[in-house]
Amino acid sequence: MTSDPSATPETPDSADPGSDPGSDNVVDDAPEVVEPLADLLVLADGVPPLTETAAALAEVCADLAAGTGPVAIDAERASGYRYSQRAYLIQLRRNGSHTALIDPIAFDSLAPLAEVLEGTEWILHAATQDLPCLNEIGLYPSALFDTELAGRLLGYPRVGLATLVETLLGFRMKKEHSAADWSTRPLPQAWLEYAALDVEVLVELRDRLAAELEETGKAEWARQEFEALRSFKQTPRTDAWRRVSGLHRVRGRRSLGAVKALWETRDDLAAHRDVTPGRIIPDAAIIAAAVALPTDRAELQEVKGFHGRGADRYGARWVEALERVAALEEDELPSRSPKGDGPPPPRAWAEKDPVAATRLQLARDAVAALSEQHHLPVENLLTPDVLRRTLWSPPATRDAGDLLDGVVDQLTAMGARAWQVALTAPVITTAVLQADALAADKAAAKAAEKAAQREADRSDLPAEAEPQDVGDSDGEGV
């Protein structure tokens, strides 16, 4: 509605401001309702001492062994500061014992801790972030519960630890120090308090989420997901250099080769120094050098990003990398699009295989409907990669039963859990059959259209002349 700015809406004295449907300019005088802040989470037992000696570790292990139930575990890394993803602090808490903070850098072995944790359930938040660094120091879970993944399965829109703790337990968590350099020694007391809070109520959060999983019939789904996480390994990145920010600005295979060579040189230096690669030279410098392709150190120093301390220190290495690229034959240089082992990008399916494109769209719609029905993210129902691979190369059979069995086998072979297979295999099978049926109907309609056109074309031809009699009735010619 558009109001006349010169008119003043009349509102009866008894009317509630804002109740007049004929006015767009009513001011609501009701006081704004401000939700009270939740109580700030604090440590029940204060900040525990940092465990740095064998004697102190033995005490921590004895204390954990005296506790009962699952063990809340967290690890702090120095992402953004260090090249490695090693753990620089481990936090643990268990009912019946105290919170422990362990400095893994101080120990050659954490075998005593691994022994006391054997057979316990670990509670982790976002397990895929912490498991690799915990495995690196010899700690492997016998069982686990991932509170972040549980939140996803339950359909919570935001599953960060602080959000779940406030939503389910009613406590606010401190957010500072999350991006701290945990390789710092000594660790500040405020950082240790922050770290201890990460496991303070993790056991209670686990119990609340576990109860919801049972209530919603998703407990078995979660059990299968958690079991799969126990063997989680980070997948090595293929052509990781292609993730350099700004790569789209690079034109030509030789410039792409320069990006690759400079990235690999930077990565080697970062690994050797154990610093994050961006602290040596930023991605922007790699892109700028790949575009300019300088031929010597003087030209390189004119490139933006190569006149700082880190860039200048390794000037000879950068020039050497560029010289190697300059000497390569054209067919030795990287291509714009990497060769993958999977199907083509979905945008190319319609051209390469229209039937596959149709079955992918049908399956996507069906899986999206399932995710909405069960209140969980689509990617947790079935990963996009598994769905694409299955739809690009489904089983050859079109017998409904055999096709379903084949789809089940394919999904299982690619790591889908039994609960995911049970939900998605039937709709994927239906999508394959429907796509084929639609293609057949389309082909039949096209054939019928062509036949009709041929018939129409024949009917438009002039009729052939009837043969004429050249004689009279008695057979005599004219």
Automatic annotation (TrEMBL):
Record domain HRDC: where: 252-332
Compositionally biased residues, Acidic residues: 466-478
Coiled-coil stretches: none
Annotated spans, Disordered: 1-29, 329-350, 443-478
Biased composition (Low complexity): 12-24
InterPro entries in alphabetical order: 3'-5'_exonuclease_dom (IPR002562), Exo_C (IPR041605), HRDC-like_sf (IPR010997), HRDC_dom (IPR002121), HRDC_dom_sf (IPR044876), RNase_D-like (IPR051086), RNaseH-like_sf (IPR012337), RNaseH_sf (IPR036397)
Biased composition annotated in UniProt, kind: Basic and acidic residues: 443-461
Compositionally biased spans, kind Polar residues: 1-11
Source domain of life: Bacteria
Protein name as catalogued: Ribonuclease D
Species of provenance: Nocardioides plantarum
